[in-house]
Design a protein that fits this description.
about 45% helix, four-stranded antiparallel sheet, alpha+beta, about 400 residues
Length: about 400
């Protein structure tokens, strides 16, 4: 079984508005982040399955014969996604030698790959192949890096197996799958996320699959049909934090001061809904400075609310202060307590201002990228449409 080469990519995700409030039944807006994860599947004749993850310095190969033994009774049709097979996961953990305790990033990535590869191909002949992944996303920062990886794995392996067609036509640079195929990709990616995170919300893999912006409310995920592409700075303060501890702290504050905190949550909900309305207007009428004025005010209001909830941090205060001196507006994204923040860039913001701001933030010890939000979800690439430096890495292994 000889496979064609497949190149795919999927975006990361950021929360635009609604973090923490979403836990208490309020709206959150999740957006695609155009820092992408790229994956290359290449058919080989070595009789091995190899995975190369240079971001985390992991390079592994297995013999097809030993993998085939694992698939004896695990696999049904690849067009159907069954519930996560916990017995099969246990066998895979034994196979890679991690039966006890929590897995590190490397082992979780391997487990997700083997599970999806063996489930998708397991009922037939296992193909000899090599998978190489390179990500522009930092790991462990709440930016959806594991979901982008799972979405890429699902799309590329389903495509290579023939479960979904190759959308890329001759002469095209990039192409996306139809809705039905995206749903299959998303459901397999969610399996990968369950392996990595245990009990994920499904938001990250949905953003990686569909891109754009999603509305998340009480467990329901609704992709929004059209959103404008917004330029942003993404800043990683490099301050580690525990999402679990921060979420528990907000809950304690709500229990302690219900009459104070309930209106704060309601206000965050209104911020998310107002933002959604403004972004919707920006796709169907000429974009004005007033649209950006409102988006900036909403960013400021939400950041103050997040500080009231107790999930701010001195590093995030520095981010807001430094960017405001350049006339730019910032807020935390995700759990807070450090972690990452986003800064909105207006269309007229001069590149010299952007470069000076990035340098200011780097001088504070932060990592900073100029990127965009609201871009496409998972897509197939021709090799020519993959960034030169990324293609060089994907072809190196």
């Amino acid at each position: 079984m000889q496979l064609n080469d497949v190149f795919v990519s999927a975006p990361g995700k950021a929360i635009l508005h609604g973090e923490h409030a979403v836990v208490h039944g309020k709206v959150a807006l999740a957006v695609s982040l155009n820092l992408r994860t790229y994956l290359h599947v290449k058919g080989t004749t070595t009789g091995n399955v190899c995975i190369n993850l240079p971001n985390i310095d992991t390079f592994l190969c297995w013999d097809l014969a030993e993998l085939k033994q694992l698939t004896a009774d695990c696999c049904g049709k690849k067009e159907e996604v069954k519930r996560l097979d916990s017995e099969f996961i246990t066998r895979l953990r034994e196979f890679i030698g991690v039966t006890n305790g929590n897995l590190d990033t490397c082992n979780m990535a391997i487990l997700a790959f083997l599970y999806i590869y063996l489930s998708v191909f397991g009922s037939g002949e296992l193909p000899s192949l090599k998978v190489t992944v390179w990500s522009e996303l930092p790991t462990g920062t709440g930016l959806g890096s594991s979901a982008a990886y799972s979405v890429c794995l699902a799309a590329a392996l389903l495509c290579a197996s023939g479960a979904i067609p190759t959308p890329l036509k001759e002469g095209e640079n990039t192409a996306r799958w139809c809705q039905e195929d995206l749903e299959l990709i998303n459901s397999w990616a969610f399996q990968g996320e369950m392996i990595i995170h245990g009990n994920p919300s499904g938001v990250d893999n949905a953003v990686g699959t569909w891109g754009g912006m999603l509305r998340f409310l009480a467990g329901k995920i609704i992709p929004l049909s059209r959103v404008p592409l917004l330029r942003i700075l993404l800043t990683n303060t490099r301050v580690p934090r525990s999402t679990k501890v921060l979420v528990a702290g907000v809950k304690d504050k709500i229990n302690k001061f219900p009459s104070i905190m309930t209106p704060v949550l309601d206000s965050v909900d209104a911020v998310a809904c107002t933002c959604e309305k403004v972004l919707s207007e920006m796709t169907c009428e000429p974009i004005t400075g007033e649209h950006y004025n409102i988006l900036e005010e909403l960013i400021d209001i939400n950041q103050h609310h997040l500080n009231v909830m107790g999930v701010g941090h001195p590093s995030l205060d520095i981010l807001c202060r430094v960017t405001l001196t350049r006339g730019l507006h910032s807020k935390l994204t995700g759990a807070g307590g450090g972690g990452c923040g986003i800064t909105l860039l207006r269309p007229e913001t001069d590149s010299s201002v952007v470069q000076a701001t990035v340098q200011d933030l780097k001088d504070c010890g932060f990592d900073c990228w100029e990127t965009s939000i609201g871009g496409p979800g998972v897509q197939q690439h021709s090799p020519l449409s993959v960034k030169e430096e990324v293609l060089e890495i994907l072809n190196r292994y």
